[in-house]
Amino acid sequence: MQNRKPNRLALVLLCAALLSSVACSQKGTEVIAAPSPAPSATPPLATSISDRDGGFTVSGPLIVEHQLDVLAQRDGLIAELRSDAGANVRAGDLLAQLDDRQLAADLEAARAKTHSTEADLKAWKAEARVLQSDYDRAQKMWDAQLITREQLDHAKFKAEADQFDVQRVEQLLINAQQTQHSLELELDKTRIRAPFSGVVARRYVRQGQQVAKGDRLFWVAAAGPLRMRFTVPEKFVGVLKVGQQLAMTVPNFPGQEYKAKVVQLSSIVDPTSGTFDGMVEVVGAPGPLRPGMNSILRIDTRP
């Protein structure tokens, strides 16, 4: 009897250990086999697009069609600044002036050369008329048998040679005129002008600064029309139409709503993203709106 009790106790302990091992094994199996969390939704093609309340809202900056950096067209020294950042300019207004003294002197010399060649051409043409008159007279004298054939040929060859001199001087005049025109173009490059009407958004140079061809001098932007480019899913093909007016708001002016007209829609859908591009233009006076401001465009899809 005493030998059986320890055996029973050992058996109980052994069963308890086995049950604990099975439970732990099952628990570990459940953890390993548990499904992984669902992957997050694919991010939208443009973070500025959201779908809510039966419509899409697209946000983006207001832009203008005409805005560019005015570059130096030749090397030179900034002799004078005529405009600064924030100034309103019209197309052709002078923004800055490069030092043009050397070019101006070269141009005056070229003009003098042109005038001199023009005078030479007039003189050669007058000489040609005289020699042609001599040849005509010699022809009549030959017909009357008053001069020899050699004398007639001499008058003829002089008249022909003078015509060649006239042609030579005409080409010299063309060369002088083109040289003058080339210097006039170079001189005009020293005058930095506004390419279109708008606002000088930024000035990059100072008076007295040496600049090289291609250096940025000014950033000029047109005041309008204000536009906004956007990208929308292909489901809006046929929904949006050129000329359609949409509501636009600007976070800087809460409570105010503007009208924007669709002026451009791409005829091609990007197969990678399933989207297409468009552009709207603010209708009417822009008021406080300025290029670069962030705007929100609402595209209503409700019937």
Explain this structure.
- The protein is α+β, with helices and mostly antiparallel strands.
- It has 3 helices and 16 strands.
- Helix content is 38%, strand content 28%.
- The strands form 3 sheets. Strands 1-2-16-13-14-15-12-3 form an 8-stranded antiparallel β-sheet, with no helix packed on it. It has a 4-stranded antiparallel β-sheet with strand order 4-11-9-6, with no helix packed on it. A 4-stranded antiparallel β-sheet has the order 8-7-5-10.
- A hairpin with a 2-residue loop joins β1 and β2 (55-61).
The gist of it:
The chain is an alpha+beta fold and 303 residues long. The protein has three helices and 16 strands. The termini are far apart.
Features:
alpha+beta, four-stranded antiparallel beta sheet, Elongation Factor Tu (Ef-tu), domain 3, single chain, 28% strand, 3 domains, disordered N terminus
Number of helices: 3
Q: Give the strand content.
A: 25-35%
Largest sheet: 8 strands, antiparallel
* CATH architectural grouping of the largest domain: Beta Barrel
How many domains make up the 3D coordinates? 3
Using the alpha-carbon principal axes, give the shape.
Answer: elongated
Task: Report mean pLDDT, rounded to a whole number.
Answer: 83
Order of helices and strands: HEEEEEEEHHEEEEEEEEE
CATH class of the largest domain: Mainly Beta
Distance between the termini: 92 Å
Strand segment tally: 16
Helix content: 25-40%
> In the CATH hierarchy, what is the superfamily of the largest domain?
Efflux pump adaptor protein, beta barrel domain
Structural category: alpha+beta
Uncertain spans, ≥5 residues at pLDDT below 50? 1-6, 21-48
Q: Could you tell me the radius of gyration in angstroms?
A: 44 Å
- CATH T-level fold name of the largest domain: Elongation Factor Tu (Ef-tu), domain 3
Q: Give the strand order of the largest sheet, numbering strands 1, 2, ... along the chain.
A: 1-2-16-13-14-15-12-3
